Amino acid sequence: MSLSRNLGRAISIAAIALAGPAIGQIRTSADGGTEIAEAGRPVDEGVPEVAVYQLQKLVTGLSGADAIKAKEKLAEALIAARRSTEALRLLDEPALRGSTSGKFLRAQALAGLNRPGEALQLYREVANNNSVPQRAAASFGAGEMLRALDRADEAIRAYQALENDPRFGISARLREAELFIAKQDSVMAKRILDDSQTKIAPEKRQKRLLHARIELLNQRPEKAAGLLDSLVKKPEGESRETVIAALFAMADAHLQMNTPEAGDDYLEDFIDRHPIDPALPQVFAKLDQVYRAERKPPRNELEKWARDAAQPRRGFARWYLAQSDLRAGRREEAIRQFEQIRRTTPVPAVLAPALLQYARLQIEAGRVNEALAILSEAGKTNPAPEVREQIGFESGRALYAALKFQDAADRFETLGNDHSALAPAALLNASLASLRADDKTKTERDKTELVRRGQVDEVADVALEQAVISAERGEKNAGAMLQDFVRRFPDHPRVSEAQIALAEMAYRSTPPKLDGAEKDLAAARATHPTELAVEHADYLAIWLADARGADSDRVIASARDFLR
Asked: Per-residue DSSP letters for 407-419?
């Protein structure tokens, strides 16, 4: 029995940068207003940490409405400084939590923490209030969250509603075009861009980038590279989002032109200049894709960064050296790189996925205790919520491999009850682990929940495992359970395993039912048998040939087929 390893797609959301000020015009008393504005000015100047320091000092001497407004500005500065967790703690104060500005800032903080579902709810609450100055910004934020949640059609409608907004109209049109590019609708994307009258330099560059992506979509990489050239060679003044998107588009252009060796330079240069950038996970992944397209994937830059002290760049370099080693079959070298990452003190949270992969390798190698230790270390890095869920999932797999079925069932059941991408696979695994633990109550409870959620294939998997385990234990109702599975799920990809199990039961019965065994064996082979079913069918054919008293040459031939 194999557990599901469908981890789903982990959500990755870039920090949301809304056009225009984060909150409406702050109204305070004359003196307080001047002080707050002065202390918060570094946010607009791109040095939010300075604003955090100044506002924290200022807040202690204020009271009443001025204190509330200063704390709102402090929360805005914390979010701009990528300290959203601290901002949420500040915004939990009752006076801030119930205000419109407080709700908007909470949404901003949640967006910065990659929690789009929660942020969307707050953005919509603010956007539905026509009388507040943050309404348009909240509507745009809602569109961003829908985009992050892969709800493209809803996001497009949200952006379309803002097309005539004086502050967000152009940004909304550009986002709308980007979504149509993602939907591979180059005609609609081009129409939107052609109708967008960009005025300021950042918007013009973003429009140029999107035109380049349309050229890529239309398989015209040379034109795309021409449009992108100035964006990647002179990135000064560009938003971080535009710079990274341009780098990726240029890499894609060179991949289309079959010139990956020229495409890696831009990515390597970015990594050289930005050893601690939050986008390093995505940039390294793109660089790895380009390297894999090269005739002889280079290692010199990765080895250079692996020797440098700057983190997390050094850790990512070691991780991708390990990836390269694994692809080349150099498992021991890969393990050495993973151990180097593991010995880093402390391991950066963004490298928790590297430890997660290392743990999976250990599970596959049968070193379950070592895998559990690595997963425990990964959990202590304070990883992103989706990575923490994956750590819990792999911990369940490790416990299952260690035959600690009840512990595995508990771990999976916890994940199965969450509203995450892992929940469907976790709930299936919880049921399978409970089945092995002979906890019939939990098995049936999880199976009922699978039915309620409409996970038909997973319900079938549990039914098959129940029947197979019943057969292994020699229970009288095993045959009826297997036959019921074949009848109810004739198109299930593992139906051949049920038919083979029926054939084996018929062969082992007293006396052996050879006709029935041969019939079930033939039925299994007539489907698209799984690898496990084929293996069992081959040795069962040898036993049946021998039981029929076939001549030795036929039995030997069957045995040779099995060994082959």
From this structure: HHHHHHHHHHTSS
How far the first Cα of the chain sits from its last, in Å, is: 24
Instruction: Report the half-sphere exposure of 284 (CA within 13 A, side-chain side).
Output: 30
Mean pLDDT of the chain: 88
Secondary structure of residue 506 in the 3-state scheme: helix
Quick check: 109 and 79 in contact, CB under 8 A?
yes
Of the pLDDT bands very low, low, confident and very high (cuts 50, 70, 90), residue 416 is confident
The pair of structure tokens assigned to 512 is: 């052996």
Rounded to 5 degrees, what are φ and ψ at 14? -70, 155
Q: Where are the alpha helices (DSSP H) in 163-257?
A: 169-182, 186-194, 201-217, 221-233, 240-256
Place of tokens 């490298």: 351
pLDDT digits (tens, 9 = 90+) for 153-185: 999 999 999 999 999 999 999 999 999 999 999
Query: What mean pLDDT do residues 143-152 have?
Result: 94
CB 10 within 8 Å of CB 357: no
Nearest alpha-carbon partner for 65 in 101, 103, 41: 101
At 326 the pLDDT is: 96
Q: Please name which of 205, 279, 216 lies closest in space to residue 244, comparing C-alpha atoms.
A: 279
> Can you give the pLDDT at residue 385?
83
CA pseudo-torsion sign 107, 111, 112, 113: positive
Summarize the confidence of residues 249-261 as an average pLDDT. Answer: 96
CB 326, CB 334: distance < 8 Å: yes
Confidence of residue 130 (pLDDT cuts 50, 70, 90): confident
CA distance 557 to 534: 16
CB–CB of 185/164 below 8 Å? no
3-state secondary structure of 166: coil
Q: How far is CA 475 from CA 468, 472, 488, in A?
A: 10, 8, 21
Token pair, residue 395, equals 């911990």
- Burial class of residue 480, CB neighbours in 10 A (0-12, 13-18, 19+): exposed
Q: What residues contact 430, with CB distance under 8 A and at least 6 apart?
A: 396, 409, 412, 413, 415, 416, 442, 446
| C-beta separation of 356 from 390 below 8 A | yes
Rounded to whole angstroms, how far apart are CA atoms 421 and 386? 9
Angle at 356 between CA 351 and CA 359, to 5 degrees: 135
Q: What pLDDT does 558 receive?
A: 52
Q: What is the pLDDT of residue 542?
A: 85
pLDDT digits (tens, 9 = 90+) for 31-64: 556 888 888 888 888 888 998 999 988 888 888 8
Contact 435, 466 (CB under 8 A): yes
Residue 508 is predicted with a pLDDT of 87
Residues 6+ apart with CB under 8 A from 493: 528, 530
DSSP 317-353: HHHHHHHHHHHTT-HHHHHHHHHHHHTSSSPPGGGHH
Which domains are seen in the chain, by residue range? Answer: 20-167 (1.25.40.10), 185-290 (1.25.40.10), 441-563 (1.25.40)
**pLDDT of amino acid 271:** 96
Section 515-526 average pLDDT: 92
Give which of 292, 47, 13, 346 is closest to 147, Cα–Cα: 13
